[in-house]
Amino acid sequence: MSEKIRIIGGNRLEGEVQISGAKNAVLKLMAAALLTKGETKIYNVPELTDVVIMLNVIEQLGVKTKYDKKEKSIIIDATEITNICASYELVSRMRASFIILGALVGRCREAIVALPGGCAIGERKVDFHIKGLEALGTNIKIENGYVHARASKLEGSDIYLDIPSVGATENIMLASVLAEGSTRIQNAAQEPEIIDLANFLNAMGAEIIGAGTSEIIINGVKQEQLKPIEYTTIPDRIEAGTYMAAFAVTRGKGIIKNIFPNHLTFYTSKLSKMGVDIKLIEPTTLEVSCKRRLEAINIITQPYPGFPTDLQSMAMALATTADGVSIITESLYENRFMQVPELRKMGADIHQERNHALVKGVKSLTGANLKASDLRAGASLVVAALMAEGESIIDNIYHIDRGYELIEEKFKAIGADILRINQNDDVTNNSKGRIISEPQL
Fold first, then answer.
1. pTM for the full model?
2. What CATH fold (topology level) applies to the domain 3-20+235-434?
3. Which of 85, 108, 119, 290 is catalytic?
4. What are the b/e assignments for 148-164, b being 16+ CB within 10 Å?
5. pLDDT (tens digit, 9 = 90+) per residue, 45-67?
6. What is the C-alpha separation between 28 and 401, in angstroms, rounded?
7. In the CATH hierarchy, which fold is given to the domain comprising 23-232?
8. 108 carries an active-site annotation
């Protein structure tokens, strides 16, 4: 039965929030674990639908996995890979699972991986992934919705990306770890998740230099040089940014723990300009508060270290009740304003023209029946509902469950009036139905 989230807005949020492990990092670490034989253990793994999907993808390859709920860790035993095909049924549900392609090509020299799915936020081609793997010596054909990749051997190469694609950078990194010679990725993505992947691979025995800059060099190593490791995932900067926004719009005050502040420098700067007070309490702890009405802001989404596209919808939610007119430009994905019609239902004054949105701040939002169209748009509706007057019901929350661990439990702990309900408006057992169990294929 379909679940929804019910929120009675207007409560001032106050308290502490512990940020979970980064979804966009842990999924790639899980794929990277396929490069080495033996048991790799990853800590700080969030309880998310996407993690379950990736576990299913990996198990489909014949790899053994074990999730420890109490420890929030995953053991991946990739001693044997008995299948090199990642099915459409799984990969089409989550774009990040396409990263399995680079890992399989690197380890097995062969892969059959379905073309990816995920949130419908715009066209995200895999051309850069494919061209990068071809430059390493992989022969690739696309047939019936599947990428067929095979390489008799992999050789390092100089690869220039027309845009700093995160997924392409990661796929090329994974494939080139076991290639002969050196690979240089120019115009590489610089996101913290890229650095985390490089640190993980280097701990396994890889030789990667320059992660976090526009040029990454991977010196290929032999299979026997890679060893299984234990590794802790970085905190989720997008989840952290979401809770920062929630404290701000409710005129609240909160402590956000397990956060790497330098991963959110641009976002934090914009919030400060809007009137949010942000203080560094400890190296991984921020205090966020706001006592007054926010001020309008102009933002343009850009690849890291610019303003994150994943937090654009959050900035728009903040701007709906800010003083003045905000201009928000989405430069990365053409369909990433899908929260706009839902925010308008709540009384927001938003004029959209292609990839630009003019947001004129109104006095307040009112509750409404809403639908999450994708992961980040859905999260922005939660934030908007928390500050709105009256009741909001958010449908299609499976999108939100893909990227936010126990979201209603965390918000309830800091004072939100929030419940997970079923289709008949009966209160369900919160998020217990989403706790990760060992996936069944």
1. 0.93
2. UDP-n-acetylglucosamine1-carboxyvinyl-transferase; Chain (3.65.10)
3. 119
4. bbbbeebebbebebeeb
5. 999 999 999 999 999 999 999 99
6. 18
7. UDP-n-acetylglucosamine1-carboxyvinyl-transferase; Chain (3.65.10)
8. no
